[in-house]
Specification:
The structure is a single chain. By secondary structure, the protein is mainly alpha-helical. It is 72% helix and 4% strand. The protein contains seven helices and two strands. The chain has helices at residues 6-22, 27-34, 38-50, 66-89, 94-104, 110-124, 129-144, and strands at 54-56, 62-64. Strands 1-2 form a two-stranded antiparallel ribbon. Strand 1 and strand 2 form a beta hairpin.
């Protein structure tokens, strides 16, 4: 599969997220979720359909192909991994962590993502939670100054 632009990855991730509930999504739902115009969604849907990642009925449902489900799950997984790292390890505010995860998920290498995930698991393990809490407290105190 040809590499997707960050923008197309966002559209595919949105379609994936919305299809988890009902097995399909609609352009208007993607438009609302991403806060973009419906014509922008239609353009992205055509590009993703041309790559075989989804199927779209004219004025109807959007369904992911098996390749689209796989790619969407990978993108969503990167996003969740980074957001968890930002919130649970770096003690970032949830909204800011969401925004930063959305940007970083497109640029970090698979190796960097793997290491961020391993570090998150390591720091959240029971023997290290105390260290993590102390580090968060230190960051909070430094930010309060």
């Amino acid at each position: 599969m040809k590499q997707l632009s960050p923008s197309l990855e966002d559209y595919l991730e949105a379609a994936y997220t919305l299809t988890l509930k009902d097995g399909f999504s609609r352009a208007i739902e993607i438009s609302r979720l991403l806060k973009v115009s419906k014509p922008s969604v239609n353009s992205a849907v055509k590009a993703l359909a041309a790559r075989g990642l989804l199927e779209h009925e004219r004025y109807g449902y959007i369904r992911l192909s098996p390749a689209g489900r796989k790619a969407g799950a990978e993108i969503a997984g990167r996003h969740l991994l980074l957001k968890d790292f930002f919130v649970s390890v770096l003690a970032m505010e949830e909204t800011r962590a969401e925004q930063d995860a959305c940007r970083a998920e497109h640029t970090l290498s698979p190796e960097a993502l793997e290491r961020v995930g391993a570090l998150t698991v390591f720091l959240k393990s029971p023997p290290r939670r105390k260290i993590l809490r102390a580090a968060r407290a230190s960051v909070s105190r430094a930010g309060a100054r």
